[in-house]
Amino acid sequence: MSRVEAISVTRLARRIRNLLEIEVGEIWVEGEVSNLRRQASGHWYFSLKDESAQISCAMFGAKRRAGAEFIEDGTKVQVFGEVSFYEARGSTQLIVRKAQAVGQGDLQAQFEALKKKLNEEGLFAQEKKRMLPFFPRTIGVITSPTGAALQDMVNVLSRRAPWTQVVLFPVAVQGKGAEKGIAEAILQASDYSPRPEVLIVGRGGGSLEDLWNFNEEVVARAIARCEIPVVSAVGHEIDFTIADFVADLRAPTPSAAAELVVPDRKELLEKVNRVGDRLHRQVTGSLERLEERVDRLAAGVMGQSAERILREPFLRLEEARRDLLEVVKDRLHQKEKLIADSHIAWQRFHPLKVIQRRNERLKQARVDFLRVTQESLSSRERRLRNLEDQLRLLSPEATLKRGYTMTLDADGQSIGDVSLLKEGEQITTKTATGEALSRVEKISFEH
Question: Given a cut of 70, is residue 61 above it in pLDDT?
Fold first, then answer.
């Protein structure tokens, strides 16, 4: 077989380039901008497309180019440039020198039209937004099972709230018909067991076309009908979709959505520790105040014997009893004198029946007086007994019977401060059943 005459790939690429530059050259092209990428170098790369085709475009030094401010994803523009062939990659591209706006692209127009329609129906109303649960245990995630967004959310949830259970509803998040699968998953989540307490719907970043499934009406209405609070997490912070407006909460990224739906474990632990420290201080303070009160009682009433405490009330009661008896005797003497005088007067001046009735009244008055006096004495005796019972409850003997002990020094005085003791000193410990002698070997103080 004879050798065929062939040209190199480089020569072929160069011919294609020359052909395009000569036959097409500089030209105005109209289309819709998509997949815009702004480089730090100042160069912009994007695609220009219509219903049937698309072509790659490059605008070098875009900020210095006329009309660059009109270039955004979804806008329809007219660009002027030169068609070229990039030999290193074997791709055709349009080197754009200037651009001018034609109007919003078809996708952007659809977006604005649907946004206006749903807003007028009230699907975006703030009063319809539901609060997210503070401490969810089960979290539903509707996204692609192979996307980086899922892994980012799982990592955040595992770090912040390791107790949560993540339920994945795998769906396609891009491409024709993907919106139907997303809507079905949103509605089916309410019937899943265990039922998620909050639902994250979203995906990672992309162009307007990549995110378009979340701008479809069927997804918006599914979110509005969902019985579970929904967090929309579509794309990056600068991306807005119809799903964001309908959802109960919009998150700038999927990772941010995971942070919004669960509390941070570290923050919860710090809060629990702060509450615990505050309760400890309160309890400790209460115990210290109770100890001070017990010490005051021990130094006051409880440091004295019941006999010493009751001696003065008994003396006052005995004195009152004597005074009362003297008053009774005086009253009786006056009544007897009145009766005697009445009897004499009866004998001298009054008929028999009148004197008899008066004598009966005097006798009854005497009986009533004695009864009232006796009741007064009985009442005072009862009050004294109550006082005696209360004081006995507070006496050291009663305290010892409740299981406490009392420590006395060599002089028999109650010890309330260890600083008063000396090493080698003999002390007595009293209990309810007896006493025990001991000697001080070491003294320690609590700070």
Answer: yes
pLDDT, tens only, 187-241:
999 999 999 999 999 999 887 778 899 999 999 999 999 999 999 999 888 888 9
Task: Return the minimum-mean-pLDDT range out of 52-56, 215-219, 258-262, 313-317.
Answer: 313-317
Inter-residue contact 149 to 254 (CB < 8 Å)? yes
- Domain 109-263 class in CATH: alpha beta
Give the residue extent of every domain in the chain.
Answer: 9-104, 109-263, 306-400, 405-439
Fold classification of 9-104 (topology level):
OB fold (Dihydrolipoamide Acetyltransferase, E2P) (2.40.50)
In degrees, to the nearest 5, what angle opens at C-alpha 190 toward C-alphas 148 and 153? 20
The mean pLDDT of 350-371, rounded to a whole number, is 67
Query: CA nearest 148: which of 104, 213, 205?
Result: 205
Q: Which residues contact 185 (CB under 8 A, 6 or more apart)?
A: 142, 169, 171
pTM exceeds 0.90, yes or no: no
Q: Pairing between strand 165-170 and 138-143?
A: parallel
pLDDT tens figures, 353-363: 555 666 677 77
